[in-house]
Amino acid sequence: MPAALFMALTRTLVRAAAAETSSPAEALRRVNELLLPDTKQGMFVTAVYAVLDLNTGELTYANAGHNPPLWTRRDSLEKLARTGVALGASEDSRIEERTIRLEAGESLLFYTDGLTEAFNLEGDMFGEERLLRALGWQEAASADETIRAVESALDEFAGDAPPSDDLTMLAARRV
Question: Exposed/middle/buried for 3, CB within 10 Å: 0-12, 13-18, 19+?
Answer without folding.
Answer: exposed
